[in-house]
Amino acid sequence: MSTVKSALTIAGTDPTGGAGIQADLKVFQEREVFGMSVVTSVVAQNTEGVRAVQHLDVPFIEQQLDAVLEDITPDAIKTGMIATVEMMELIARKLKNSSIPYVIDPVMVAKSGDSLMDDTSRQVIRETLIPLATVVTPNVPEAEILTGIEIATQADQKLAAKYIVEELGAKAAIVKGGHLTGEETEDILYTDGHYTSYYSERFQTKHTHGTGCTFSAAIAAELAKGKSIEEATSIGKEFIRDAIQFSLEIGKGNGPTNAWGLRLQGLPNEGENVHGAPIR
Ligand SMILES: Nc1ncnc2c1ncn2[C@@H]1O[C@H](COP(=O)(O)OP(=O)(O)OP(=O)(O)O)[C@@H](O)[C@H]1O
Ligand SMILES: Cc1ncc(COP(=O)(O)O)c(N)n1
């Protein structure tokens, strides 16, 4: 009997492989958990932006979910782009009585500025999915929408993280500091009445496509392996630090994170990708 743990991502797609389901599966593989995926929306996007979105029918998303869950019980579940109220209601119904660790990356807007969740869903996610979450990982704009708190300082990040747990009912919340300024990034976790900060150097790079997906997938993978929320966040933060420090100059826009990270540390030189040549 295999002892390999598994993780399921329920999210949208990125045909260039840097964000969404494709990014999640790369991270699961690198963290040595067996990756599985259910597609919610097919997105025609690349490193420059989103061109078109096709939402799959909710009954078909349900068929995908049933196909996985009636066969394999994942050790952790992560959701990313869940664009509509109907999709949220379906996932909430499926996960309501589950004890599987569940990470929500409440994806609302892509880095390119394109909307990935409709306005009603931005409110409805608070009542449907957030109360079921083991960990919610909003960036600053997402945390502002979820809580109504304007976030400019570390104190604001703390207030928002506490609100998501105490008022919205998640077990834990990490309000990420990627969108703030300063020489370091600080992500603040609130759970069980305690705050913990996770820091990294802030790298000056435009290649940050998929950072939120990469971070939350790494946390989900570690929860699948039985790590505590604090341990999983700590490993996730180191993972995203390396994935951004060695992010890839692939494509014409904002290149993707590097899920190999330090493993291929020796290979990329400035202006080169891991294969030793610029990719255009
Ligand atoms: N320039 C940077 N240098 C180092 N770490 C960063 C940088 N930008 C973001 N991070 C870290 O990356 C992780 C993801 O944060 P971010 O705020 O970018 O997420 P996000 O906006 O949800 O990402 P996405 O746009 O992919 O949805 C966090 O741990 C954050 O601190
Ligand atoms: C399907 C999908 N999910 C999430 C993101 C967010 O990633 P980013 O903000 O880095 O573009 C995305 N672009 N596409």
TrEMBL record:
It comes from the Bacteria. GO terms for cellular component: cytosol. Signal peptide: none annotated. Keywords: ATP-binding, Kinase, Nucleotide-binding, Thiamine biosynthesis, Transferase. Its EC number is 2.7.1.49, 2.7.4.7. Coiled coil: none annotated. It holds the Pfam family Phos_pyr_kin. It is an enzyme of class 2 (transferase). Pathway: Cofactor biosynthesis; thiamine diphosphate biosynthesis; 4-amino-2-methyl-5-diphosphomethylpyrimidine from 5-amino-1-(5-phospho-D-ribosyl)imidazole: step 3/3; Cofactor biosynthesis; thiamine diphosphate biosynthesis; 4-amino-2-methyl-5-diphosphomethylpyrimidine from 5-amino-1-(5-phospho-D-ribosyl)imidazole: step 2/3. SUPFAM superfamilies: Ribokinase-like. It catalyses: 4-amino-5-hydroxymethyl-2-methylpyrimidine + ATP = 4-amino-2-methyl-5-(phosphooxymethyl)pyrimidine + ADP + H(+); 4-amino-2-methyl-5-(phosphooxymethyl)pyrimidine + ATP = 4-amino-2-methyl-5-(diphosphooxymethyl)pyrimidine + ADP. One of its GO terms (molecular function) is phosphomethylpyrimidine kinase activity. Residues 14-258 form the Pyridoxamine kinase/Phosphomethylpyrimidine kinase domain. CDD domains: HMPP_kinase. NCBIfam families: HMP-P_kinase. Belongs to the ThiD family. This is Hydroxymethylpyrimidine/phosphomethylpyrimidine kinase.
